[in-house]
Amino acid sequence: MIAVVTAFADRHIGTTAETQRIMLEALGLAPDADDISAIETLMRQAVPGSIYTDPTSDTRIPHAATEAEALAELRGFASRNTVNTPMIGLGYYGTITPSVIQRNVLENPSWYTAYTPYQPEISQGRLEALINFQTMVADLTGLTTANASMLDESTAVAEGMLLARRASKSKSPVFVVDADAFAQTKALLATRAEALGIELVERNLSGGEQLPDELFGVFVQYPAASGLVWDPSAVIDAAHVAGGLAVVAADLLALTLIASPGSLGADVAVGTTQRFGVPMAFGGPHAGYMAVRQGLERQLPGRLVGVSVDADGKPAYRLSLQTREQHIRREKATSNICTAQVLLAVMASMYAVYHGPDGLAGIARNVALRASMLRDWLVEAGADVVHEAFFDTVEVHAADAAGIVARAHDEFGILLRLTDDGTVGISVDETTDFTALHRVALLFGGKEERSFGFLGGGSHGALPASLIRKDEYLTHPVFHVHRSETAMMRYLKGLADRDYALDRGMIPLGSCTMKLNAATEMASITWPEFAQIHPFAPESDVAGYLEMIDQLEGWLAEVTGYDAVSLQPNAGSQGELAGLLAIRGYHLANGDEHRTVCLIPSSAHGTNAASAVLAGMKVVVVACDELGNVDLDDLRAKIAAHADEIAALMITYPSTHGVYEQDVVEITSAVHEAGGQVYVDGANLNALLGFARFGDLGGDVSHLNLHKTFAIPHGGGGPGVGPVAAKAHLAEHLPSHPLAQRATHAGGFEFAGGPVSAAPYGSAGILPISWSYVRMMGAEGLRDATAAAVLSANYIAARLGEHYPVLYAGENGRVAHECILDLRPLKEATGITVDDVAKRLIDYGFHAPTMSFPVPGTLMVEPTESEDLGEIDRFVEAMVMIKAEADRVASGEWPDDDNPLVNAPHTAVSLISGEWGHAYTREDAAYPVKSLVATKYWPPVRRIDQAYGDRNLVCACPPIEAFA
């Protein structure tokens, strides 16, 4: 008998041919006279004929591989990567991920399939993990408040620069940059500053060079890129005298031993938590961090977790202040970053929970002592060591520096840093053993044989006595009580059990695409040949990575209709910025400095406007009509009004309202005729893939959300990857990187734009996920996934349309991959709000759809292609029953202020404590559907008071007694 191998696409797509037939019949569709399938008919009704693409065999996407075949090909890539001993440093270090964290967080779908905690009642586990992260960062940096993570160190420095500009009273455009900062950070700062008219002035701060008379901020690397540990407090004081703020990029492991930035007077501390148990992964993803002194809390970009109270007055966590500020403040937002690196922040925080302050300090002392021992051996050999004071990095002057670096690699498999023609940099980390130190010393003429003695535990290596840290940190009990693996495992399990993730049920979030993250796609990211690679390793060590990246770039170019793709942006927001900077670069190269206006429809994603401002553009809003489409008359009027000033139009396709705009080609043509470029926001590519291409409908550049369309998991709010794809004429303006292994990309393109991420390929460590998805789906599977997603959205719209008006649809009455349910009539008739419905859905065992975006008082529902008909029908049933419950309130059967909707969600404690005095039964509250008896998810807290948390801002771990 021949075994039948099920295609991966059949496992990824939740609906089967039979259940799709049932759904299509509900839409009144069946195969037509020309034998065009019913689902193809649906897509032809939804997608405008002017852009519709029939299936074609002429594609660069290979035929779908089985899961076993894809893993075998990935093994082939991995075998062409070489895991050498990393001693390059520059912000990336070898680290040991505790197995209990790797297994129970990184490889656990309860953590990696969760969504951003916008519904905090069902996100208490990851919110606690994030407040642990914030507490860890605030304690180590000696500052008051830390946010819930940044994208990486270099982008965090850039955000620190922008914060200083906002908060400083100085009118000066000058920002001073430490000459001894990481090269990738200086390059990224130059990218970000140029577009905003910020003047970067480099100074040798540790060497005593004076600051300019006027400035708005200064940036210090601490310890310095060269390894030097010095006291920057005088520079910080001078910056304050000049009216500026001080931003310090600090190594958190070093901060367990040396004085904190806060104690030295810093206003802002930034950096990375990579060496807290998160593998280097060829550059990411890693959780950057940012902390600020008191008074700057409301200037923080990104996300901030705070403590509030629930309906019973019990402590509860939620996002504070900045939540989705891009959608509220748009071009006035403090940052375009609307995400974080939650999964990696959880890992880093749990590394601190696992080791505790004594364990972290012990690791740091071992690093410092090994570096000091290496220095002694080098001096003994007659080498010229550059600095006397350092933590983990030793620099050595050498006439044959390049030869030493080459020999280290070729003879010993050790990666050293060629700082310049006459200097070698050597960084020690948690994983560096004595054999590696001995071999490095040999390269400089050290002894052939050496006995390794006991290091001892009292010394701080080569750190200056004046900077040894005196104050305590990580004093909260959470960093002291989980010492055994049993305790750690149970703590992680307990937190995961408080959360709702895709491993529990559907998360029908419109615009966010919470679909399956298959185990096979995830399997390779922890392989050492992918996880343990330094981002600046030589090209010969990363041949497998580069080949896989080249293939993925080519595939993404193919499916989008573009020519070139950069995988460097490590979030959708950074992809937006990179695309707009490419447009800016193109216009400047053509002498069109006056083209600075960016047209953005009123329905656009909030990050669009924020990104345009950060790219140095002026935002002009274009109106939308009553159907949610771009108002063509207003577009033409805005084009006429700004004529020669137009740089770009940003348009999301399908639209943010969940429909395929019929006039998209006319829209893009009008902008091109005016000399502008068209930026197509790729957030909704999952509704277009296989049926149309951005490049064919008039797009010049787009960012793509790999964490949506291409199956990278959300991880509770990060990681993400936001590649930027462009036509050939914009390719040279895509992001480059000063430390990239090679200049060329798929298609032979060379990029010359400035970097937007710290690493050449951004979050390269998770690119195998998207590579696997495309490889296993094939062109046909990708197309089938799109059709299945659109079918599921239209099925929900049809089933729920009689209960809740569907706000927008295309000319043929079809929606795209999501539908917007209008709950405003429900509120008018019954008093029940969109918040009430969202919280009541928790009682039914669901994460709510996207609330009040893009239209207040609505729910935007996106079922994705991964959910089966049973789960979709379960959601439909819940929404129908909630409508009936609201009608019982309207009829007077249940009081306005005491019904299952306004009191939702219901915790187990609220049901069993005391006398039941409500107008509805316990069964109504807990088990509105009988099937929940066996599978009930119990929220750990009742409805959270959002306003209380903003009025009483607490963003660090509360004392244990608060939960008594």
Automatic annotation (TrEMBL):
It is an enzyme of class 1 (oxidoreductase). The modification N6-(pyridoxal phosphate)lysine is found at K708. InterPro entries: GcvP, GDC-P_C, GDC-P_N, GDC_P, PyrdxlP-dep_Trfase, PyrdxlP-dep_Trfase_major, PyrdxlP-dep_Trfase_small. CDD domains: GDC-P. Its EC number is 1.4.4.2. Residues 10-440, 469-735 form the Glycine cleavage system P-protein N-terminal domain. Coiled coil: none annotated. Its cofactor is pyridoxal 5'-phosphate. The keyword Oxidoreductase applies. One of its GO terms (biological process) is glycine decarboxylation via glycine cleavage system. One of its GO terms (molecular function) is pyridoxal phosphate binding. NCBIfam families: gcvP, PRK04366.1. HAMAP family: GcvP. Belongs to the GcvP family. The glycine cleavage system catalyzes the degradation of glycine. The P protein binds the alpha-amino group of glycine through its pyridoxal phosphate cofactor; CO(2) is released and the remaining methylamine moiety is then transferred to the lipoamide cofactor of the H protein. This is Glycine dehydrogenase (decarboxylating). The gene is gcvP.
